Amino acid sequence: MMRIGICDDVKEIVKSLYEDIYTWAMYHHVNVEIKKIYSGEDLLCEIQYSGCFDVIFLDVELGSLNGLEVARAIRKTDNITKLIFISSHHQYYKEAYEVQPFQFLDKPIEQNKLYTVLEQIYHAVKEKETSFSFAHQRVNYRVLCNDIIYFKSESRYVNIVCKGTSYQFLGKLDEVERILFERKSNFLRIHRSYLVNAKNIKEYSYENIVLVNGEELMISRNQRINVREAYKRFLER
User: Is domain 2-126 annotated with CATH 3.40.50.12710?
Assistant: First the structure.
């Protein structure tokens, strides 16, 4: 399912976009959830309490919190959502590139251009890399699994070590492993405290692995056979 947000302070534009997106989705048999939102503040609250969107159609010239400010706030915790800026003015486009927009649409929005963008988004979302979502201090985060080097369990927390950054959230490694297993991901449980991304293993031996960030981790004795077989299957794929 594609989760789509439409954020504009002009209700007629939101209504028109909603109807056009819904029509496109029905014609192409695409399962969508579409949220109509009328301010930047309400959009950020929706993300906070209901999770990230796959796509957001975002007006640049919102009220007290404009579209660029909203996009910067989103990008602090989510680099995956496709942002589509809608505006009747071009002077914002250069500044908007810092928040990695997927596309720009000029107002009034032409239906054929909207449908072309929706087609592009649909294929991009369908083929996107698996992401992992979590919450920390009431803030929702989402990171690409390919960017995750490993998960580490410490007391009641799980640390996520990524390429260039790290995160922490309250949780259990067993639950993380269950979620990733259901998605048929490439993570290996090498130790009761470590869940490692096989894609980010640089060197492998029966007792140890070296990761792309240079860290060396020990494979626990009771996991060595399982890890060897799982890593072999990964390499064969």
Answer: no
